[in-house]
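Dissemination and training. As part of the outreach component of the grant, students in the summer workshop were shown how a complex can be specified as a set of sequence lines and then modelled as a single object. The example used during the hands-on session is reproduced here so that future cohorts can follow it. Participants entered these lines:
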Amino acid sequence: MEAPLTSAPSSPRGKIVAQAEELYRDLSFGAVRRWKAAEPGRKALGYLPVYAPLELIRAAGMLPVGIVGGGDMEVVRGDACYQSYICRIPRSTIELGLNGALDCLDGMLFPSTCDVIRNLSGMWRMMFEGRYVRYLDLPQNFDPAVGGVFFAHELRALAKDLESLGGRPVTDAALREAIAVYNENRAAIRELYDVRAREPWRVPASELYLVMRAGNVLPAEEHTELVRAYLAAARAEDRRLQDTARVVIRGCFCEQPPVDLLRTLERSGCSVVDDDWLLALRWFDADVPTEGDPLDQLVRAFLSRSPACPSLYLRQGKKGDALLERVRETAAEGVVFAAPSFCDPALLEQPMLLNAVKAQKVPCTAFQFAENTGQFQVIREQAGAFADSIRLA
Amino acid sequence: MTVAAAKDRSQDRQKEMIARHFSRLARSEETGEKNVYTFVPGNLTELLLAFDLLPVLPEINALQAGMRKISGDQVTKAEKLGHSEDVCAYVKASIGALHSGNLGPTGERLPKPDLLLLSYTGCFTFLKWFELYREETGAPVTMLHVPYQADGCYTKEMVQYVVKQLKEVVIPDLERVSGRKYDEDKLREHLKLSAAAEDDLVRVLESAKHRPSPIDGYFGAVYYVGPIFSSFRGTSDAVLYYRELWEEVRERMARGEGPMTPDGPMGPERFRLVVEGPPNWTHFREFWRMFHSEGAVVVASTYSKVGGTYDFGFRHDPDRPLESLAEYCLGCYTNLDLPSRVKMLSGYVRDYGADGFLINSIKSCDSFSAGQLVIMRAVEKETGVPGGFFESDLVDPRYFSAANIKNRIESYLQMLDQRRSGAGRREGALS
Ligand code: SF4
Ligand code: SF4
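and obtained this result:
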């Protein structure tokens, strides 16, 4: 059963999606270049998945830019840096670096997502001499007096670096303002996700993805506006309920699924009601308090409000609890495990999640992808059979 | 004393130590001794010993399974249970082992873990590995997060962070499991023994600077580092073992002998090599033979530093017990950034007078492997010595293509030979 997946280009929603898609397709980061050109001295800092302290980067007067690989771009020199059994995102990221696309960035931040990104930080240092590179160790101890103290020090060191890189000093006032702006942004995103979970036929996965993706390159307030405008347009349009299977998708927290893969899923009868892509943009599930020491608030939020992401140690509860909770909250009927090929965090985590999901008799299916996957026939058939099995159950 | 007898002395001691340890483990459910499963990089053996806890190292058990050619079945078993073909084969071998009676390297049964000490040092997979083990066994996990040396050094905040975790998380958990109070004096005693053994280990490893090298610093070194990387660091057994080993190596050096290999003494030393990356275990002897049959000796390797970079001066320090454990964890090889790894490899090529360096790129291991091609080019640039690159895996026999690797090694050595004669000719022309 085919669901209408794209908005008419001339409709308000179609225009917003087209704008977001243009940002997505622009691998030279024109939006970042324009932002920088608008005022002399502006700086931008790239960050890789899964987490970056966006508030702090903004408080330093810089634009945080999410770098999530190069999609289906041609990769040659990046491939020469890796063996065949390494995922694709570091290859295309290197390609973007070598072809000049990332010249608009004044530095790169590599969080402790996995060993590939960790090692990429050192490769970057060697391959792009003179550019600012920082590895951000995320605490795996979640006690404020232990991991919190360590993380606060990491963030302060980053703030100092950004300042000497030509950003502004990170004052408490600036940090509070940034927290407030990102709270707004996350609130808009939460609303988008809520609407999608309730009425997925109004917010196709591919559109949600593109609108979210714009947040990688736009200043937070512009992105908030875009999300709100999209929501308003989506609500205004009369879209009819579809007879699809409501699924949660997991595994896309780092290397990104091609948008056409999302379209394929939906065309095969799966409506995505929750996902784990672009987590950095919605890392906290509630507002970060703006009172008190703002850096401390960010640290505390990280320790207590981070999502169940494979990059973080699960200290309490069981693997899969958080996923099952989302399945319940979104009234999902199934789970799609879509992991990037060769992604150790996703693939090592998957058996635990699968067990948890199966124990609750939630239907699930699993496949792998790469950011440049171009053939979807197999996935289409698998997803179609999966959706049918749910609908006919 | 004959060479063979000298070789046997330390080897026998090591064998006996291992046998004793695993039989203690096998009997531990009756004797009431408690165990802690943990990892080689960043292991806290002295601390465990201070609580009379028995260490179990799933990595070592997996590699032993590889050497005994049973890891293939274990890996397949884990894959049947839903583990991906693309993840670290150590994890899969160990999960497979759990589902096949959990036998250790001596064939005796390993006890169920009383505690999983997740010393998260230098490898992301460790995190998932013990999350998986927790699910499989129901044992509790103690997490020790060791920050990465991304800037080629560690800071006092990193040391404080690790020490704080030791004090507030790890030690209380060890107290709970062992039923004993933390005794810092006991820890100091073990640390003192560690430092003594470490001195002798470094002497052994650095003997490879001598020509001919009396040891193989990769294939041979994996036996030499065994006790110190596993359950015996901080014991008087380990001190004795390394003392004996060093004496044997010194004797070999004095007699101008090369390394002893499983096929007997190595012939004349023709090539001195540095190797980066872990070895393959399923075809270990065959792999080694590809080197020694060509007269190639590995004079230094990074793999022999995954459990500690002692040759750069680090010693466990009884006067700063917890700080020194923290610094130990921070300094393990896979916890170093890539520029430091390049520096280390280039230093080895120079200091050990190597003719070449090879990278054995392990499919299982992102921590080692991601970036190795860039490392290779950087070391080539730094030293002027061409590198060689080949791929295999640790304990998954499907990824050891003997003919391919042999070919690569042979053509690499031929290239070194030609280079040497070319250089000789050039020198001749100049004189
Ligand atoms: S896709 Fe997976 S393995 Fe690759 S960089 Fe991202 S988290 Fe790491
Ligand atoms: S990924 Fe590498 S370092 Fe980590 S457990 Fe596997 S082999 Fe060891």
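The first strand of chain A starts at residue 43 and ends at 47. Students were then asked to discuss how this feature might be tested experimentally.
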